[in-house]
Each structure stands twice: as structure tokens, then as C-alpha cells.
Amino acid sequence: MTPFFERPPTIIGRYSVFQFNLLHLGFWAFVSTVSFFCLTLWYGPYDWTHIVHIILQALLGLVFTLFLDVGFMRIWHRPFIYRAAVGFLMVLIASLLWTLFRIEAFIRLTEISTEWSEFGGWHFASVFIFLCWTGLFHGMRYNDLLQTEHRIMLKVEAEAREEQMKRMRAQTIARDAQIKMLRYQLNPHFLCNTLNAISSLVEVNEAEKAQSMTVQLSRFLRHSLDNNPDTKLSLENEVKALNLYLEIEKTRFGDRLNLEFQIEEQAKLAMVPSLLLQPIIENSMKHAIAQNELGGTITLLAKVVEQRLIMQLSDTGSGSKIGKSKMESSKGRGIGLRNTNERLKALYENDFTVSIDLLPLGGLRTTIELPCEYSITGSGYPMSNQERLSGIEYKV
Predict the structure, then answer these.
(1) Pair 194, 340: CB distance under 8 Å
(2) What fold is seen in the domain 185-387?
(3) Minimal CA–CA distance to 305: which of 353, 355, 371, 350?
């Protein structure tokens, strides 16, 4: 069984206990000061015996309130009625004992034996003093509970924020991994096509063209690997990066490939995901230009309408009209368009649209609508000298 004098464990911290003990001593120092100036000096005459009595009664009172402190803490978790009744009884007993001790001490120090007749006044003052101390005790304890609850709430909020940040970091990592996976799935398909073209050029003794295409492929792969898939750059620089791919295709198809780019000035600085257009144009090269003996034209239109960037990429088709059912199946056009759609979904959630329409002459038109965003500097993504491309003549 825990001894009575040992304080039961509480949630009160060391600083609060020290603060309470400091106020405890201050309370009795204040009582002694008031007693000296309001009683001893008022009723005079006074001498050292009166001062010694004030100090002695303060020390006795401090001991009694320490007992009250332990007693109050013992019943702290009991119902309020129980605490009020037992607490008031302890105050009455402590004030009675303190009154008896301090009257007896006063008589022995001053040799004035008439103080017992003033017992009622002495006891009333004692009850009032101990009730004041009880109010101080409960005020401090409830303040400690409030501060402790506040600290717990702050700790819980901090842990919740940390947990939320961890979830956000995990989601960001997962999103970045998804974007990288979707982006890097495009390179093997394009790489196989280009290597096959290089192999064909070697077979027909077109060594110079094969060497040129190899250099162009190296530049394109370097740019693709050096740029994160979730990086955004200006549409102007995206078109410049697209030239790396088009240089290779221009070597393959020569005059059969025509390009028409019409980009408004306001749209040039709009930010778009890196290498967004390349897989769409690659599909046009595969399904339209390569299958048409006369080649064809790929058109890119870009404009800003009501804070939305609208990009339209279209081709002239394979040379033969396709039916409605075939057009529906052509909307997939392989992994390129599917991954482009997934990339945009990961970056913009539902704030984008991708649509594919059949043109009258058999070609397809892909329309991408994104929020119009600009870089802080307004200059777009800075490109290195290696990424600044040699020009291809466009019909603008």
C-alpha cells in the first residue's frame, strides 16, 4: 500500500510542481506580511516575540497545507460532491489545529494568557486563510490540466500533420513512379523503329544517312533520359525538343514528311509536360505517313482560350478513308495515347481533356486541352546548348 505522505503519480510535470511549490511559499510569505502590517503594527506594541510568532505560525501553516496538498491529490479523481465534502472537512480540521498551535505559541512567546477568549476570531481567520490556499491549489491544478490537455492536442495535431505529410510524400513518390513508368514505356517502341530504320539504311548502303540517324537518335535519347517525365517546360521548348525526334523521321521519310506548326505567341510560353507531343506524332508517323505512298502532313495548332491551352495535332491519314467503326478502334492507337492520357491524369487529375476525331479525308485529329500555366520567370524551361536543335523548315 502506498504511504499517505507519498504523492500519487499525476500528469503534472516537474515544471508545474516547481511552480506550485514556489507559489505555495509565496502564499505563506504573503500571509506573514499581511499579518505583520495589518495586525502586529496596528495593535502594537510589537517586539521580536511577535515577529517570531508570525514566522512560526507561517511555518506551521506551510506544514498543514502540505498535508492538505497530499490529501487533495488522494481524492482528486473522486466525484465532485465527495471531493467538496471531504475537502471542506480537511480544511476545517487543518484550520482548527493551526489555530490551537498558533494561540498556544503566542501565549508561550508573549506570556499573554487572555488570547483563548479570542479563539473564535483566530479560528475564523484560519478558516479563511486555508480556504484561500485551497482556491490557489485548485486553480493551479485546473490550469495544469488545461495546459496539459493543450499540449496533448498540439502533439496529436503535430503527429496528424506528420502522418499527413508522410502520406503526401508517399503519394508523390507513387505518382512520380507512375509518371516515369508511363513515360519510359514509350522509348523502347520508338527505339525499335529507329534501329530497324538504321538497319535498313545500312543494308541499302546508305551509310551516311545511317550515321546521321544514329547521331540524331543519340541526341534524342540523351534529352529523354536527362529530363524527368514529370518536368514541365514551355510549349516553345517542347517543340524544340520535338525536333530531335522529327530529325530522325525526316531522315527516314525525306520529302514525304511535311509539317505545319501554327502556335500563337501566348501559347508558346504555356507550360506542358515534357515530351507530351512526341508519342502522338509518333502514332501519326506509324499509322498515316508510313502507310501512305505519297507521305502526308502533320499539323500542330496551339492557342490559349479562356486560360486553357488547346493543342490540336492532326495528320492526313494513310491515303484511304476509314469507317466509323475503324475510327473508334483507332482511338487507342497503341500504348502512346494511353500513356499520354495516364500521364495527364496523374499530373492534372480531371482538369484536362483528350479527344480524337475523324477528319473528312481519313486522318485523325487529337485535341488536348490543359490549364494554361506559365513559369515564374515567364521564360519557360531553360535548355542546354546540346538541346537547342538545328532547324527543320516548317510551313507556318
Answers:
(1) no
(2) Heat Shock Protein 90 (3.30.565)
(3) 371
Cell of 82: 465527495
Q: Which residues contact 238 (CB under 8 A, 6 or more apart)?
A: 272, 274, 275, 276, 277
Residue 379 has, within 13 A of its CA and on its CB side, a CA count of: 3
CA distances from 50 to 36, 39, 40, 351, 376 (A): 9, 10, 7, 86, 81
**How many CA within 13 A on the CB side of residue 69?**
21
Helices (H) and strands (E) in the chain, counts: 12, 7
DSSP 8-state symbol, 7:
P
Other CB atoms within 10 A of residue 182 CB: 21
- CA angle in degrees (0–180, nearest 5) for 116-121-122: 65
The pLDDT tens digits of the residues spanning 270-280 come to: 999 887 888 88
CA dist., res. 38 & res. 292, Å (int): 114
**387 pLDDT tier (thresholds 50, 70, 90):** very low
pLDDT in tens, 50-79: 778 788 888 888 888 888 888 888 888 888
In which order are the strands placed within the sheet that holds 353-358?
Answer: 257-263, 296-305, 308-315, 364-371, 353-358
Coil, helix or strand at residue 318: coil
Q: Mean pLDDT in the chain? A: 76
pTM for the model stands at 0.49
Cα 251 versus chain centre, distance:
49
Rounded-to-integer distance, Cα 125 and Cα 305, Å: 85
Asked if the peptide bond before residue 45 counts as cis, ω within 30 degrees of 0, the response is yes
Distance of CA 131 to the CA centre of its chain: 50
Instruction: Please report, for the chain, the start and end positions of each structural domain, with discontinuous segments joined by +.
Output: 14-160, 185-387
